[in-house]
Amino acid sequence: MTEIDAKTDALVPAWLNLPDAAEQLGVEVTRVRQLVKEGQLIAVRRGENRVLQVPSAFIGDGRVVKGLMGTITLLKDDGFSDEEMLEWLFTEDETLPGSPVQALRENRGTEVKRRAQALAV
């Protein structure tokens, strides 16, 4: 969990603070904190009060987007920082098409994971 830079902030269209993320997931805030601590969700400090927030695109239909946790694990194993992971997930890739997070939301996780694995080479 780190401070976010303007470049990453510009890439991510919408954010949720942890209580709002918990509400969307139908879980307690402590569970969201646990997901962040376990590296299954990325949270960064944003705004004037440096409040911990997660990209709203990571949550859909009351759960963490399918394939996100595995993709985060692959990127972490490749040595990516939280900011680098957010940048990669939210940057448009014309070969997908769209951004990796968009592809995950559209249930195209296999392609996203393939690209994440290719980064390690």
Automatic annotation (TrEMBL):
Q: Does the keyword DNA-binding apply?
A: yes
Q: Which residues form the DNA-binding protein Rv2175c wHTH domain?
A: 4-59
Rv2175c C-terminal domain residues are: 65-120
Q: What does the record give under GO molecular function?
A: DNA binding
TM ranges are none
Q: Give the record's keywords alphabetically.
A: DNA-binding
Give the lineage.
Answer: Bacteria, Bacillati, Actinomycetota, Actinomycetes, Kitasatosporales
Entry annotated with the keyword Membrane: no
Name of this protein: Rv2175c family DNA-binding protein
